[in-house]
Backbone:
């Protein structure tokens, strides 16, 4: 396919190729987080799903920034009985702000799913945030604790947050609305003077996309991954 005539969208098969390429780069260079996992869509006994149907999952991510050194020691000693990932402000992939903070050092977590939208034909970032006891965080509380740069990103039409049923889990999740995604992804690759082949575009698509949408949550792509 000629990139010059490409509309910025992906087929479900292209999404799967890009998802695996993104997950491999993330795992090899982003040691501060667990790897993204490819989860196949639930199977129905009367319907065989296409091989490429599924989504990427990164779950129970704890992003917090204590105000004092003694707070760091207190949080590091908390044992929830489950494996978790807490990312400090020293990691180069995190924004100086935090995803969620709370009084009394209560830990909050966030799950992220990258799901293919058959309507918009682009990836969509679904997420949910919750307390250590499993209680979900309402959107207004999440928005108050997003990084400072998030308000700027959310003012753009393609990054506003909506809530809808997760297409596979059938439960309410938040998502960054995908309208406009195809347009700015096309412009992003057309601005590349190297004029990459479509195979290269597929390999870099989710990496380039997440480097933009991840900023809403203070998640930055490591410089090592982008090379």
Residues:
């Amino acid at each position: 396919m000629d990139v010059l005539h490409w509309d910025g969208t992906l087929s479900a098969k292209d999404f799967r190729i890009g998802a695996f390429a993104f997950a491999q780069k993330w795992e090899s260079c982003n040691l501060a987080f667990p790897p993204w996992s490819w989860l196949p869509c639930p199977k129905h006994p009367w319907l065989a799903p296409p091989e490429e149907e599924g989504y990427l999952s990164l779950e129970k991510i704890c992003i917090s920034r204590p105000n004092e050194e003694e707070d760091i020691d207190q949080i590091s000693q908390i044992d929830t009985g489950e494996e978790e990932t807490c990312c400090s402000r020293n990691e180069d992939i995190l924004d100086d702000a935090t995803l969620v903070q709370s009084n009394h050092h209560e830990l909050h977590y966030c799950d992220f799913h990258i799901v293919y939208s058959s309507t918009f034909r682009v990836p969509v970032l679904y997420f949910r945030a919750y307390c250590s006891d499993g209680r979900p965080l309402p959107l207004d509380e999440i928005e108050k604790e997003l990084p400072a740069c998030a308000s700027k990103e959310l003012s753009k039409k393609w990054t506003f947050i909506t809530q809808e049923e997760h297409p596979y889990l059938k439960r309410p999740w938040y998502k960054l609305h995908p309208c406009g995604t195809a347009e700015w992804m096309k412009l992003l690759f057309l601005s590349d003077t190297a004029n990459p082949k479509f195979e290269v575009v597929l390999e870099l698509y989710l990496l380039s996309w997440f480097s933009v949408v991840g900023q809403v949550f203070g998640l930055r792509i490591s410089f090592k991954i982008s090379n």
